[in-house]
């Protein structure tokens, strides 16, 4: 087995979150009940990225999603500013 793991920095920042407990809470509170895209997990990753990158606005955050690597990491191809705003308000 290879000793060198190729985890991205973003993956390392997100790894302390217990995803099993997180998924149970999302199901219990039905946070993704009416969600077609932009699940709670992907939105949390997007918010974590925006905080760590010091993104100034939702418009700038939407522009960041043109990066293929970021899309792959957060499992979200695109999201509009209005969708992000509604998700934050919810």
Description of the structure:
With 90 residues, the chain is mainly alpha-helical. The protein is 60% helix and 0% strand. It has one domain. The chain contains six helices and no strands. The longest helix has 14 residues, at 40-53. The protein is globular. The protein starts with 8 loop residues before the first helix and ends with a helix. The relative contact order is 0.14. It holds the Pfam family DUF4372. InterPro entries: DUF4372. It comes from Mesobacillus stamsii. This is DUF4372 domain-containing protein.
**Low-pLDDT ranges:** none
Count of DSSP E strands?
A: 0
Total of DSSP H or I helical runs spanning 4+ residues:
6
Structurally, the number of domains stands at: 1
Shape: globular
| DSSP strand content | under 5%
Structural class category: mainly alpha
What distance lies between the first and last C-alpha atoms, to the nearest angstrom?
44 Å
* Proportion of residues in helical segments: 55-70%
Q: Report the sheet with the most strands, covering strand number, pairing sense and barrel closure.
A: none
Instruction: Return Rg in Å.
Output: 14 Å
**Which H/E pattern describes the elements?**
HHHHHH
Q: Mean pLDDT, rounded to whole units? A: 80
Pfam family, one: DUF4372
Domain DUF4372: 5-65
Organism: Mesobacillus stamsii
Protein name: DUF4372 domain-containing protein
